[in-house]
Design a protein that fits this description.
It is built from 6 helices and 6 strands. Helix 1 packs antiparallel against helix 2 and helix 2 packs parallel to helix 6. A hairpin with a 5-residue loop joins strand 4 and strand 5. The protein starts with a helix and ends with a helix. With about 170 residues, the protein is of the alpha+beta class.
Length: about 170
């Protein structure tokens, strides 16, 4: 009842119902049914700080990632480390602050300004939101980037879908 109403409200505001629905499924896995995946405490981020992060990077976050930031801030879920916002100083920070890391990669490897890094893989690649690849609802594709910040492959059509897929995959491994 409540989740449906929330999705309908967000959808009527022009957001992707499917991406938000997938995000809600992932959120439910983490909060209600699968506490063993949640290894970091929750650090919700106020909407004003999320907006400041967008201004700092010069991009608009898709709604599914914005909701993740407002609900969790960052996330250590089993072996999955999702980069997010850890505090209000984006210049002097560290992992798992995705705003800081994206800014650092812009300097170090000339990362294209359209990318927002949300996961750093153990092999040196990372997963990033491509803020230039938006669907009609404003959701963005996620791409795997090489060590030098070049796209290797599209990994998902939205952050919400990617998060749910990653969580389900890790649960199957346990």
């Amino acid at each position: 009842c409540c989740i449906s109403r929330e999705i309908q409200t967000r959808s009527s505001e022009g957001f992707s119902e499917m991406a938000v629905d997938k995000y809600n499924d992932a959120r439910k896995l983490l909060l209600e049914g699968n506490h063993r995946l949640l290894v970091d405490p929750l650090h919700p981020v106020p909407p004003e700080l999320v907006s400041r992060a967008e201004r700092t990077l010069g991009v608009v976050f898709p709604i599914s990632y914005r909701r993740f930031l407002e609900d969790f801030g960052t996330g250590g879920f089993g072996s999955l480390e999702i980069l997010g916002i850890t505090g209000d100083d984006f210049e002097i920070s560290g992992f798992p602050d995705g705003i800081w890391y994206t800014m650092r990669q812009r300097q170090d490897i000339n990362l294209d300004v359209k990318y927002l890094i949300v996961e750093h893989g153990g092999d040196g690649t990372c997963v990033a939101i491509d803020t230039n690849q938006r669907d009609s609802s404003g959701e963005c594709s996620l791409v795997r980037l090489s060590l030098d910040g070049k796209p290797i492959e599209v990994v998902s059509d939205s952050f919400g879908s990617w998060l749910l897929e990653e969580l389900n995959w890790r649960m199957r491994l346990e």
